[in-house]
C-alpha cells in the first residue's frame, strides 16, 4: 500500500486531499502545527463517512526542521499543500514570503533525502497572472513578476515559493529521481469538511450576511475545493504530469457575478451594486483588505485548464453550484453557532 504525506492536513484544501486519498486506499500521513487538531480532523472525516484507520498525524511546522524527517519517512509521495494564506497586506511581508519559500525547500530537501518518488506542490494562479504584458489570457507559461507594485504579498509568496521549488527540482542533487508537479488553482470555493470554511469562502460569507454592501471590479477564475484536491491526487498517478505546472480553474467571473448567483438563489443581502473604481480606491485608503486589490481593478484574468483536462483527465464540477454549497454550509454553521450560544445563555440562568 503506497503512502502519501499531506502537509497542512487540517486546512481547507489539505483535509479534502486527505479524505480523497484515504477513500482511494492510500496510507496517509498528515502534518499539523499542533496535535490538538487531531480530534477535529478525525471527527470531520467521520462526518464525511471516511474511515481514518490508515491516517497518522505528525506535528511539523514550516518554520522548523523538527518533525519533517519523521513525516517523510517511508512515504512514496508528498502533497505539499501547507502555506500561509491571507487577504490583505501584513505588516511584515517578507516574514510571510520567507515562510512560504523556506518551508517549501525544507520539505523538498527532506523528501528528496527520504527517497520520495514525487512531490506535488500547491501553488496558485496568483503565481501566473500578474505581469507586465497587459494580458487577459494566461497559461502555465506565464509567471507573475513579484517586483510589480500591484502584486499582493500572498501572490509574491506563492510565486517565490514556486520558483524556489522548480530551481530545487531542476538544479538539485543529480542523483535525485523525485519528480515535481505544481498545481495552480484559481479562487477556491466549495464546502469545507470542517468548520474552517477557508479564506476564499469568507468573501461569500460577507456577501450573504450583508457585511459587504457592494462589490468591486475584480475578475478571477473559480474552482471547487474538491476538484483542486482531485487534481493533486490525479497528479500523483500521472507520469505525464511530471515537470508540469497545471492550472485548475472551472470558469472566470467578476465578483458581481458571484453576488448575482447568490441573490438569484434567495440570499437577498448579497450586494447589487459594484463600486466605480475611483470609489473603491478611495475606500481602500481606509481598508487594508480593499487596498491590496485596488491596483488590479478591472483586469480580466482568463486561466484555462486545458492542460489539466488533457494530462490528468480532470473534469471539474460547475463552480456556480459550489458557490451555493458554500453559502448553505456557512448559513448552517451560523445557525448552529446561534443555537449553541442561545442554549448556553439559557443554561446560565
In short:
Helix content is 42%, strand content 16%. The chain has 349 residues and is of the alpha/beta class.
Describe this structure in words.
It holds the Pfam family Epimerase. InterPro entries: Epimerase_deHydtase, NAD(P)-bd_dom_sf, NAD(P)_dehydrat-like. This is Aldehyde reductase. Keywords: Oxidoreductase. The protein has 349 residues and is of the alpha/beta class. The protein has a domain of 242 residues: Rossmann fold, CATH 3.40.50.720. The chain is 42% helix and 16% strand. The strands form 4 sheets. It has a 7-stranded parallel sheet with strand order 3-2-1-4-5-7-11, with helices on both faces. Strands 8-10-12 form a 3-stranded mixed sheet. Helix 1 packs across helix 7, helix 4 packs parallel to helix 5 and helix 6 crosses helix 12. The model has no long low-confidence stretch (mean pLDDT 90).
Which features does this protein show?
42% helix; globular; 3-stranded mixed sheet; 7-stranded parallel sheet; 349 residues; Rossmann fold
Amino acid at each position: 500500500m503506497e503512502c502519501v504525506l499531506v502537509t497542512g492536513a487540517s486546512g481547507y484544501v489539505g483535509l479534502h486531499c486527505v479524505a480523497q486519498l484515504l477513500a482511494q486506499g492510500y496510507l496517509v500521513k498528515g502534518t499539523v502545527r499542533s496535535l490538538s487538531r487531531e480530534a477535529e480532523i478525525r471527527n470531520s472525516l467521520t462526518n464525511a463517512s471516511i474511515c481514518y484507520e490508515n491516517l497518522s498525524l505528525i506535528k511539523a511546522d514550516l518554520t522548523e526542521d523538527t518533525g519533517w524527517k519523521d513525516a517523510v519517512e517511508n512515504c512514496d509521495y508528498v502533497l505539499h499543500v501547507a502555506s500561509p494564506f491571507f487577504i490583505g497586506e501584513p505588516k511584515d511581508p517578507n516574514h510571510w514570503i520567507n515562510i512560504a519559500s523556506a518551508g517549501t525547500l525544507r520539505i523538498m530537501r527532506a523528501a528528496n533525502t527520504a527517497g520520495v518518488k514525487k512531490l506535488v506542490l500547491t501553488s496558485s494562479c496568483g503565481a501566473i497572472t500578474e505581469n507586465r504584458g497587459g494580458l487577459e489570457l494566461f497559461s502555465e507559461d506565464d509567471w507573475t513578476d513579484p517586483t510589480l507594485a500591484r502584486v499582493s504579498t500572498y501572490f509574491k509568496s506563492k510565486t517565490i515559493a514556486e520558483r524556489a521549488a522548480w530551481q530545487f527540482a531542476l538544479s538539485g542533487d543529480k542523483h535525485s529521481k523525485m519528480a515535481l508537479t505544481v498545481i495552480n488553482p484559481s479562487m477556491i470555493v466549495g464546502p469545507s469538511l470542517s468548520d474552517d470554511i477557508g479564506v476564499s469562502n469568507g468573501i461569500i460569507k460577507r456577501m450573504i450576511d450583508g457585511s459587504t454592501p457592494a462589490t468591486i471590479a475584480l475578475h478571477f477564475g473559480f474552482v471547487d475545493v474538491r476538484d483542486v484536491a482531485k487534481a493533486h491526487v490525479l497528479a500523483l498517478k500521472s507520469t505525464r504530469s511530471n515537470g508540469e505546472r497545471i492550472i485548475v480553474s472551472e470558469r472566470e467571473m467578476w465578483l458581481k457575478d458571484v453576488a448575482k448567483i447568490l441573490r438569484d438563489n434567495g440570499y437577498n443581502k448579497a450586494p447589487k451594486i459594484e463600486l466605480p473604481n475611483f470609489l473603491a480606491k478611495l475606500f481602500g485608503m481606509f481598508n487594508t483588505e480593499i487596498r491590496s486589490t485596488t491596483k488590479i481593478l478591472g483586469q480580466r484574468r482568463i486561466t484555462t485548464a486545458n492542460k489539466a483536462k488533457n494530462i490528468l483527465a480532470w473534469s471539474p464540477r460547475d463552480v456556480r453550484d459550489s458557490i451555493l454549497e458554500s453559502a448553505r454550509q456557512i448559513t448552517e454553521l451560523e445557525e448552529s453557532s446561534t443555537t449553541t450560544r442561545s442554549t448556553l445563555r439559557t443554561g446560565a440562568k
